[in-house]
Every structure is written in structure tokens, then in C-alpha cells.
Design goal:
- The chain contains five helices and four strands.
- It has two domains: 52 residues, no CATH class; 35 residues, no CATH class.
- Helix content is 46%, strand content 24%.
- The longest helix has 17 residues.
- The strands form two sheets. Strands 1-2 form a two-stranded parallel ribbon. Strands 3-4 form a two-stranded antiparallel sheet.
Length: 96
Amino acid sequence: MLAIARALMANPRILLMDEPTEGLAPVIVEELVRILAALRDEAGVAMVLVEQNSAIALNFAERTVVLDRGRVVYDGPSKALQDDPEKLESLVAVSG
């Protein structure tokens, strides 16, 4: 969270975040996502979010890109992926 605060001090037009919710308590995750959404919606900050928690990512982002071994396997509306549980499971399931 400190890294996000530091980045925001420069008034960026785009914010790149890698796993911003990792290791945070659920109540803190909720507040962080609420604040990031306000920055996105009210301040117009574009965001690239890399997040393994698909529920958070899909609810936060209008558009989702899923990578598998460096290749794009999905690029489209988050809502479409949320509405297709089989496709979502096939794209984000942990493979052995």
C-alpha cells in the first residue's frame, strides 16, 4: 500500500499494480479496492492490475486479459468472463 501511495504522489495518468491485495486482510482489501475505483472513476487514473484473485480483478476491471505462459488466452469484457463460469474455470484454474 505504501508503494501505491508513493506512486500516487506523482499524479500519474496510469498506475501499474502487481498483486496490490496480496497478504492484506479482507477488510483492507475492500477499502483498497474502493479507493482505487474512486481514483479510476473520479480522478481518471488508468490502471493496469495484475491480480491472481480473479473475483477482485473481474469486479474491478471493465476489460480482462488472461495470460498463460506469456500468451494471451483471453482479451475481452470482464463481465463476459464472469458470466461464463466454465470458460473462467478453464482459464484461471491452477494446473499441475
